Amino acid sequence: MDETAEFDEQFNLRKRHPIARLHLLKNVVQSHFVQRIQKCQLDVSYGDSSGQMVDIFPAMKAGSPVFMFIHGGYFRALDKRQYRYIAQPLVKLGYTVVLVNYDLAPLVKVSDINRQVLKSFQWIKDNIRQWNGDPDRLVLCGHSVGAFLAAKILEEDWPEGSGIKKAVLLSGLYDLGPMKRSFLNRDLHLSDADVSSLNARPELLKGPVEILVAVGSEETEEFVSQSRRYSQELESSGFHNDLWVLPGLNHYTVSRLLSYQRSPVLKWMHRRN
Question: Which one of 23, 67, 192, 260 has the minimum C-beta count within 10 Å?
Answer without folding.
Answer: 192
